[in-house]
Amino acid sequence: MGSDNSSFVEERSLRDVTVTNFCIDKYEVTNSQFGEFVKATGYVTVAERPLSQEQFPDLPDEQRLPGSLVFEMAKPGVKQVSFLSWWHWTTGANWQHPFGPDSAIVSKSNYPVVHIAYEDALAYAKWSGKSLPTEAQWEYAARGGLDGAIYAWGNEYSEHRANTWQGIFPFFNTKADGHLGIAPVGSFAPNGYGLYDMTGNVWEWTTDFFQIGRDRKSDQINPIALNQSFDPNKPDESALHVIKGGSYLCAPNYCSRFRPAARESESPDTGTTHIGFRLVKNLGVAEWKYEFVSRRGAEAQRVRVEKS
């Protein structure tokens, strides 16, 4: 796991870990699959729920409406933007309306579902009889048998091997890979294990809490970080989870996390236009079970963790 040569401190250093047998989804969970889950259970995602008055007593009703974070490219002619100004809270944005209430997924059944908070991914996993992958499982699968390679396909970046951003982020995208935004699953060649979009397209949730470095996982079997998280860039948040793989918004000039070793922290109650997930099935080993309490806009806590 990790890298000795990365410029991102959270990816260092290279460590040996062991994972026992598991199966992993060939593709990211799609809009169609998530729609079947919602139809069968009546589940309402975090992005479709209003912010509670108890949590936000000073907010007027119109500011507590359901919504999520939507990416917007810089306006034409703009030459400089402030950091993260490309994210906009959008009322009515959710998995069925990824860019706001006027957008839809009617013709995008085979696209990865997005605007999925950690709680939403756990609910789908429980319904499907699977689990979210650990970071170790995810990274092992993403490497596709190429130990030490920078990318899921080798050591040279290719704009045609994954759905990434070509051009200068966030000002223009040349669409050299054929996609301006999210691509249908399976649009690019699989890695050595026959898995699609392990890097690029959308970020993917893992079970691990985010911690800097890999020392605690070194030489462990099926390691998983279940203690309190810490990201020095987000010191006030204590329940951050690891997301992996980068997305269609990752460009060589910004982010560049379309690599198996790459990782980022994410608040469990946050969904965006570039976060989805895929699931695993463990073979002959204990399954982790969770009870999870998520209070939107406040600290989220894992209240019980046990093995079966």
How is this fold's topology laid out?
Layout: E1 22-24, H1 31-41, E2 67-71, E3 87-91, H2 118-128, H3 135-143, E4 167-168, E5 172-173, E6 203-209, E7 241-244, E8 264-266, E9 275-276, E10 280-282, E11 288-293, E12 301-307
Parallel strand pairs: 6-9
Antiparallel strand pairs: 1-10, 2-3, 4-5, 6-7, 7-8, 11-12
Describe the structure in your own words.
By secondary structure, the chain is of the alpha+beta class. 10% of the residues lie in helices and 16% in strands. It has 3 helices and 12 strands, in the order E-H-E-E-H-H-E-E-E-E-E-E-E-E-E. The protein has helices at 31-41, 118-128, 135-143; strands at residues 22-24, 67-71, 87-91, 167-168, 172-173, 203-209, 241-244, 264-266, 275-276, 280-282, 288-293, 301-307. The strands form 5 sheets. Strands 8-7-6-9 form a 4-stranded mixed sheet. A two-stranded antiparallel sheet has the order 1-10. It has a two-stranded antiparallel sheet with strand order 2-3. The model is unreliable at 290-295 and 297-308 (pLDDT under 50).
